Amino acid sequence: MPLVAEGVYMQSRSRRSLLAALSAGCGLGAAGWLGGGDSVSVLAAGSLAVLVDDHLGTQFESETGIGCRGEYYGTNAVMRMVKDGRKYPDVVVSADADLLRDRLYDTHTTWDVSLASNAVGIAYAPDTRFGGRLEAGDPWYEVARDADEGDLAISDPDLDPLGYRAIHAFRLAEREHGLDGFAEAVADAAYREPQEPQLLAGVETGKRAAAVVYRNMAADHGLPFHAFPEAYDFSNPEYADRYAEVSYTTDEGYTATGRPIVYNATVLESADSPAAGREFVRFLANAGGPLRENGFETEGFPRTHGDVPAEVTGG
User: Fold this and answer.
1) Residues 6+ apart with CB under 8 A from 15
2) Residue 262 pLDDT > 90, yes or no?
3) Predicted local confidence at residue 38, as pLDDT
4) All domains of the chain, ordered by start, with CATH?
5) Structure pTM?
6) Which residue from 246, 236, 250 is spatially nearest to 299, judged by alpha carbons?
7) Do the beta carbons of residue 95 and residue 261 sit within 8 Å?
8) Is there a contact between 210 and 124 (Cβ–Cβ < 8 Å)?
9) Coil, strand, or helix at residue 170?
10) Distances (CA, A) of 62 to 58, 197, 266
11) Helix (H) or strand (E) holding 103
12) Exposure on the CB side of residue 163, measured as CA atoms within 13 A
């Protein structure tokens, strides 16, 4: 069957064909295909921790007999760990498809499958001044500009795409709403959390009032979510040109240009359990229902990129 390449609009019939091939013979409904003693190690974006640990990992093990062991960090940190030889996972799942391709292609993999999109906004504690003003209808950018230092948390932009997307959003909001000096002031006043999975811990404990997060993360933690407009929430491909007007350069010199959010997954060439890894990626590509239920956008997914193995595509 023909593969649906990244960047090509997927008609519904083509998407159904790809999903059928991805599910044929493995993953969903293929219990024990690789045997009950197998396991797969997954190094993934921190925003996926609850989804994989509490939902997909358990389902995968139940339906295939393959154990799932996950570790979660900011995607920039994930790439550094792989490139520096500090982590040796079977599967890498990124919150920025281009980042994975820029950092891992040619040396660690030659392919990936794009799985879903997301949106950026603010999760907040409603019993704070910050949260109360949002619920009263005050513009988020006025609330953020007036907040005390450290009230708003963002993920570390040098370690995590969510962090540099927060910076991107501040810069686009400054242009969108005519807020001179807004982006720098809010970014400088924000607390920068180095561990993405812990980004909302401060909000839950009362140490922070709010955090810039992905939509699914607010749902994971049962917190209210104030969505950014599509002009700077990075969810809509139709705004790709506008997103690309801003960029951020990390401390190691990687320049991330604003772009629509795309999660993708691959199996590393150095994987200890490559067959189990390919099975897990096939499973993820079929996980549209759980992804949607947990706040992700799956319209137009899955998509393939590069030299995807036949075991993943069913080709």
Assistant:
1) 4, 300, 301, 302
2) yes
3) 83
4) 12-117+262-309 (3.40.190.10), 120-257 (3.40.190.10)
5) 0.88
6) 236
7) yes
8) yes
9) helix
10) 6, 25, 22
11) helix 97-104
12) 28
Instruction: Tell me which of 18-22, 60-64, 105-109, 280-284 is least confident.
Output: 18-22
Residue with tokens 């358990």: 58
User: Phi and psi of 211, rounded to 5°?
Assistant: -150, 145
User: β-pairing, 152-155 with 210-214?
Assistant: parallel
Separation CA 237–CA 162 (nearest Å) = 17
- For the stretch 133-169, pLDDT in tens is 999 999 999 999 999 999 999 999 999 999 999 999 9
Specify the pairing of strand 225-227 against strand 120-124.
antiparallel
Cis peptide bond upstream of 237, omega within 30:
no
Q: Provide the pLDDT confidence category of residue 13 given band limits of 50, 70 and 90.
A: very low
Residue among 292, 287, 294 nearest 19 (CA) = 287
Rounded Cα gap, residues 56 and 54, in angstroms: 7
Identify how many contiguous H helices and E strands the chain contains and give both numbers.
Answer: 15, 13
